[in-house]
Amino acid sequence: MARYVVDVMPKPEILDPQGKAVLGALPRLGFAGVTDVRQGKRFEVELEGEPSDALLAEVREMAEKLLSNPVIEDFEVHVQ
After folding, report:
1. pTM, 2 dp
2. Hey, what's the signal peptide range on this chain (predicted)?
3. What range defines the domain where residue 7 resides?
């Protein structure tokens, strides 16, 4: 079984209201020194077979077509 992880994050120039909300809450909870927070998504995809370049390419295609919005998000895919 091959397991891949897709991490999706908003592009740096895109506003991240969820990240800003977390950033505002952290000092109220006693966490000092945090200068920025960005919130993203993580997908774990299991495929039949052993990890390979072909399966990695297939997961990248999944990320481009469904798991992310390429207009406002960047993603990284790696084998776990």
Report:
1. 0.89
2. none
3. 2-79
CATH code (residue 55): 3.30.1280.10
What's the number of domains the chain is made of? 1
- 3: CB partners within 8 A, 6+ apart: 44, 45, 46, 47, 79, 80
Whole-number pLDDT of residue 32: 96
Contact by Cβ (8 Å): 72, 14? yes
CB 77 within 8 A of CB 4: yes
The single-letter DSSP state of residue 21 is H
In the numeric block, the tokens 């399966």 are attached to: 55
Going edge to edge, which strands form the sheet with 2-10?
41-47, 2-10, 73-79
Helix (H) or strand (E) segment spanning residue 8: strand 2-10
Mean pLDDT of 3-15: 97
